[in-house]
Predict the 3D structure of the following.
Amino acid sequence: MGGAATGSQTRPPSAGSSAPAHIGTDPRADDHDPALPPRIALLGNPNTGKTTLFNRLCGLRHKTSNFPGTTLEARLGRLRLDGQPVAGGPRSDCCGQDDAAPVTAHEPGARRDSVAGADLELIDLPGIYSLELDSGDSDICRRVLLGEAAPRGDRAAPPDGLCVVLDAASLGRNLMMAGEALRRRLPTVIAVNMIDLARRQGLSIDGPKLAELLGCRVVLISARTGEGLTTLRAALADLRIPTRTAPGGVGEAGAAAVRRWADEIYAQVGDLSDPAGGAPWDALTDRLDRVFTHPVGGILSFAIIMAALFYTLFVLAKYPMGWIEWIFNQLGSLITTVMPDGVLQDLLANGVVAGISGTVVFLPQICLLFFLISLLEDTGYLARAAFVMDRALRPFGLPGHSFVPLLSSHACALPGIMATRAIPDPRERLATILVAPFMTCSARLPVYVLVTTILFGDRPGMAALAFVGCYALGILAGVLSALLARRTILRGKSRPMCLELPTYKLPSVRTALITTWDRGWVFVKKAGTNIMMICIVLWWLGSYPHVQPPQQAVQLREQAQQLREHRAVIEAPNGSVEPVSQDLAASIDAEAQRLEAANAKSHSFMGRAGKAVEPVFRPLGYDWRLTIGVLTSFAAREVFVSTMAVVLAGEDTTDVAEAGVFHQIKSATRDDGVTPVFSAATCWSLLVFFVLAMQCLPTLAVTAKESGHVKWALLQLGWMSAVAYGAAALVYRLAS
Amino acid sequence: MTENSPGNQDESACSAARDAYESGCCAGTSVALSTLRRGQRAVVREARLSGKDAELLRAMGLHTDVRVRLCRAGEPCIVAVGSIVGDCGCGSECRIGLARPLADRIFVTVEEVAVA
């Protein structure tokens, strides 16, 4: 079984065959397009570092989590093999069938041609404990392995090989997964990950022995540090069907057989070389667990960690936010300076630049939030927080399993709702789906930032507190709604929670940066496409039809002109006569400009629509401008800030280049020219409305799909809208 | 190495568990997992759970005859689950958090040696 064998051109032979089948040339079945690179599925238990490995190998941005069940969607990535040594390098951590005859780049007939310059496609499957479980995750994995499911937009086809990722620190349990994989009779490599952590705990693993017992290549790696990855790349380029298989069967008997097989193998390959090595580690983990899951200490530590996170967010983000705002202001000034007055200049300055800056200015906060949460996830803490939340959720009829979907919903409700597939009980699952959009998603963040900044200005502590309050209000509304649903339309008992608690470890900055980049890029793309289109449409609706300036503005313009032309004088109180200050003429001009802009907006298509709907939102304290902002945000919440930037553009007489978008929005007044659009009472009302309202069309679509009926989506929309409207009206009344 | 060193304790616990496992009988009476004290080691004997819960826990490694060490008593109940045929339980283990109702329905036999 030398590495010189050429790759098989057909589907791998059936179980028990000893003929090596490789991937790298064209190993896919008859329906495989030769132009497509071979596809390898990453399979493994949750918390084995599978997604970290995926990111390391592909550089593809992907969400990494310490929780079982968060990577519900399979993701595809491409692994470039250019320049990767196939063999010949250090192979101390690679063990397997071809050790005796390693493939080399210069070996005649070797798979050099299929490796150099070739790509492999990796598909990252959800972390599962068994392929045989009756759960959504296991079902996805089974279907992908059978070629019945594929990521959206991709053709379903069975993978050409498997890379089974095992956790070195709990190899005994993980080997059961390896056994299930071996029975699939696909070309396979075993990656024993987190070998560095295992060594720190005094555990050593005999790689060559493990490879011999499993009958396939085994590579000891650390995806976090990069150890062994060069060897793994080479092994992935030359996968073979295992020469051994594992016992199987259905039900408890089958599971017991695999378990015995795994135990026997582990007894031969695992060795606690330093028996005392793991004790301090265990003792520290025990102590941390006791604190983080304590009924009081757990809640306190959770509150402190979250408050610290948001305080850091506010303090650090304000600098890059200022820079971004300055850049957009300079861009707006440049456009108005360089371009002649006209429609195009107005569109670019007040439509595109003002609108985009209103959204992009929040990019630092969003990136920083994801960065910090990713770091927190990576430490292993959040799994402990799940149990703290389980105690809190159970009285409301939600299981602890709901924590992961609800936590995911804090990034975006879409993956959160999809993650509810891991909830076994259908009633509990439906209740979680219905309340998931109450959780504060990232699309709400720009609105929170805008409103809390208007309310608290330079008091980051108060702003952070308000921010945490928004999150708390969303959670409270969600659990109360869940309680109501579980007591009425979704009656039933809650299922007790069980969850694997991952090892505590230092977070990976690299993983956090990849996650941040991924999320930030999605946000920027959205700002550059959907939000820009909405801004352009809003600019048009706000600029047309053209109307005559109001009589008062005309008179003011004439007055200012006369003052300049006739060099008018005024009599000072002391009787002396002084020339009129040019400032007075300028301020009269500015007032005329404000009146013209307000009149134009008021009579535009957008103004008319806003005024028509304004009575509906008047109890909440919104004028027609805010009404437009709220209405457009039903398409996507984050559009609100951009909408306000466009709607209020030109109404403020301050030099925008100096003051910025915040000032423009904050200082905007209603039609009377005195009352601020964003008064304190309105701000609180707006904040509550955005925390509670269902303003996301894609979420409604996913709710309908996941719940199986559109009636649940309509119920969700109706309930959340009613709660948001009632609560915001109440808050406005109390705050006025 | 002193008498109470972790290494000695682990070896004693491991030996007791291995003896119990190999003899096919329990050293003590089965008790609910939730009644263990922190640091106590035990061997899982029975799980009176519904089908899905039982399947999931088995797949997570909490199956019959597996050794466990109680890391935290109460709600949640946290157990370190190790391989009974491994050199020693703490060498290859994962931690599983269980809600109290689950821990009440998993029955174990306590090993003679408890680790403080």
Observations:
- Chain A touches chain B through 55 residues (CB under 8 Å).
- DSSP finds 28 helices and twelve strands in chain A.
- The longest strand of chain A covers residues 161-167.
- Residues 399 and 494 of chain A are 6 Å apart (CA to CA).
